[in-house]
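ARCHIVE CARD
SHELF: 3
SLOT: left
DATA:
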Amino acid sequence: MNDKVRCLRWWHGAVFFAAVLTIQLLLFAAAVLAGSMGLLGRTAVEVSASLFSPFAIAAQVLFTCSVLTGFALTVPRAFGTTARDLLALAPPRSSALVLAAAGVVPVGIVVDEVTFLLHAAAPGLFDTRALDTFSDVFALSGAASFALVTVVVTVGPALGEELFFRGFLLRAFRRDMPATAAIVLSAGLFGVLHLNALQGVGAACIGAYLGFAALATGSLWPAVGAHALNNLLTSVVARLDPSGVGSAAEEGHSVLLLVASLAATAMVVLSLARMGRDREGEAGRRPYLPSS
C-alpha cells in the first residue's frame, strides 16, 4: 500500500457523501420547481405521472448511479491506486458470491418486518406512499417499459451504489473505525440518500448486510450480486402482486416465515463470517470482520 492510499481517511468519505447528497437534494429541488412552474403538468395527477413514469424513474436512477460511479472511480486516481485495489474489485470465491446473493432473500423478509413494526408504531412518519408509488410504476407499465425500468433498477444501483457505499465509503470509514462502526455508519448514510423515512430504514438495514458481506468476503462483487438480486425480486413482486411491495410494511409476514428467515439470515451471516476469518487468516492481513 503506497503512502497516498495510507492517507485515505474517514473524512474523505464524509466529504464525498456530502457532495453526493447535495446533488441529490438539488435534483429533488429541481423537480419540485419544475412541478410548481407547470413544466411537468398542470394538475397534481399530471405532475405525479411525469415524475413517476417508468422512463422518468429510469432516468433518475441512471443519473444518480452515474454520479455515484463517477465519484467512486475518481477516488482511486486521486490516491494513486487502482479501482481494483481500493474498491475491492478482485473476484471472490464463487461460493461467497452465491451465498451472499442467496442471503439477501431472508434478509429482505426480516427487513420487511422491521418496516412493518415502524409503520405500525408511527404511520405518519413511516408511511408507505413512496412504496405504493414504486409498485404502481412496475405494476401498471407496459411490457417494454417494465423491462426497461427493471433492467435499470436492477443493474444501476447494484453497480453505482455498491461502488460508492460498499466500495469507497465503507472502506474509507474502515481506515479509522472498527468494522462494525464502519458498516453501520455507511449503511445509515445509504439510507439517508433515499430521502424517505421508511425506504431509508429498509435501505440502511439491507446496506448493513451488504457491507458485512463485502468486508467478510474481501470483495465488492458479492454485495453487487446480492443488491442486484434484491432489486430484481422487488421489481418482479411489484409486478405480480396486486397489493404491491408496500403491503409488507402494512401487514408484515407470518410468524413461521419470519422465524425461518431469521434462522436463514443467521446461518448466512455466520457462514460469511467464517469465510472472512479463513480468508484473512490465510492472508495474514488485518481482519475486516465486526469482531475486530
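SLOT: right
DATA:
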Amino acid sequence: MIKDILTDAEHRMKSALQVLHDDLAGVRTGRASPALVEKLPIEYYGNPTPLMQLASISVPEARTITIKPFDASTLKTIEKAIQTSDLALNPNNDGKVIHLNLPPLNEERRRDLVKHVHHRLEESRIAVRNIRRDAHNDLRDFEKEKLISEDDLERGEEDLQKLTDKYVEEIGVQGKNKEAEIMEV
C-alpha cells in the first residue's frame, strides 16, 4: 500500500519534471533550437496545431532556424503565427521556407528570461510539494483506517520526503543549467 502511494507520487513528480524540462527547452537562449517554435500553435483548418506537425524544423546555423512546411499553402499562416507570438522574431519567407534569425540577447532581455525561468522553477516546486501533500494525506488516511501502523506511516513519510527532496533538487539543477545557458554570451 505504502509502496503504491510512493510509486504513484514518484510517477507524478517525474511528470512534473518532464513538463518543466519541455517548458525550459522553449525558453530562448543565444542559440537557435527547434524547441523554441515546435509547439507554437498554428491555425490549420480551424484547429490550433503545433508547428512541428505542419513543418520540418531545422537549425542550419547557431542563430538560424529553418521551417519548411509540408503543405506550401500553410506558409503564410505559419509566418503570421510567428509574428504574433511572444517570440519577438521576424520571419523571412522565401516562398518555400521560413528563416528565423535570432538576434543576440541583450543583458536586460537575459535578466527577464532568467526571471521567467525562476518563476517556472517555483511553479514546478509547488507542483512537487502538492504531490507530496496528496501522498501524505493518503498515508494518514490509511493509518486512520488502521490499514497501516504508526511506524509504517513514519517510514512512509520519511521515504516520501526523500523522494520530494530528490525532485526539488533536480528542479534546481535544471534551473541552474538553463540560467547558465541564458547568461552565456
